[in-house]
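FAQ

Q: What does a record look like?
A: Structure on top, sequence underneath. For example:
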């Protein structure tokens, strides 16, 4: 698969490395060519680098992996309003978390994923990979206590979801159906809450009971 990555930071490197290893063709991108070029060299000979517009054009799947406050500008640079991402799978891993407060830098009930879907004309947006630190996405594979990490996906297009499920499986994780894109706001808020706990030293994993206690049925 051809995967364009908007960004050349930690998430671009973590997921780009995994997908390159899995045999996908990856193009990373940035506003300054030096950083994506250096990252592409680290990813290996099959990887390449370019502008945001070139990565959007290159990918059948495109990952948005820039700072949340930069997303609107980066999507504009990628031509999102003019339909450059039409028909493509657009994965959103961003978290609009305000440092120190661990609150969301969004209007109540809004989500980055839906804002991205509004801007990227015709793209099939899937929220994924936002719920764990980049260090987790570098693990080969991300398995804890013998259990593969579950990656929830929110999106409205069944084909796009199926493609992202395969990209989750490629890195040794298990995809889970998180529901339609309107539920991305819940996933984003949950992640912000968890990040707040983790930064306070709380073992947030221990907060959740085993699945059989999830309902009283
Ligand atoms: N780090 C994590 O553990 C983690 C986990 C899950 C999700 N996320 C989310 O993933 C996204 C990327 O995080 P990251 O850890 O990869 O961040 P990062 O390492 O700080 O990289 C940020 C990326 O955003 C770009 N960027 C920042 N400001 C920009 C601007 N004004 N215009 C254009 N590009 C700009 C940077 O480009 P320059 O190098 O040119 O500044 C860089 O490519 C964020 O939305 C974050 O919330 C992060």
């Amino acid at each position: 698969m051809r995967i364009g990555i908007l960004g050349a930071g930690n998430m671009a490197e973590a997921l780009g490395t995994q997908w390159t290893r899995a045999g996908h063709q990856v193009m990373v991108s940035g506003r300054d060519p030096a950083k994506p070029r250096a990252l592409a060299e680290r990813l290996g000979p099959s990887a390449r680098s370019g502008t945001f517009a070139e990565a959007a054009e290159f990918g059948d799947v495109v990952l948005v992996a820039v700072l949340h406050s930069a997303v609107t500008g980066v999507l504009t640079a990628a031509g999102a309003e003019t339909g450059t991402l039409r028909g493509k799978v657009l994965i959103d891993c961003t978290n609009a978390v305000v440092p120190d407060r661990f609150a969301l830098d969004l209007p109540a009930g809004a989500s980055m994923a839906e804002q991205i879907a509004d801007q990227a004309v015709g793209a099939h947006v899937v929220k994924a990979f936002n719920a764990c630190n980049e260090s987790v996405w570098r693990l080969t594979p991300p398995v804890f206590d013998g259990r593969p990490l579950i990656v929830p996906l929110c999106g409205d297009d069944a084909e796009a979801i199926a493609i992202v499920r395969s990209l989750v499986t490629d890195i040794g994780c298990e995809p889970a159906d998180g529901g339609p894109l309107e539920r991305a706001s819940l996933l984003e808020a949950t992640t912000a809450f968890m990040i707040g706990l983790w930064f306070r030293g709380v073992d947030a994993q221990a907060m959740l009971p085993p699945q059989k206690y999830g309902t009283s049925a």
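Q: Is there anything notable about this one?
A: The domain at 2-202 is CATH 3.40.50.720 (Rossmann fold).
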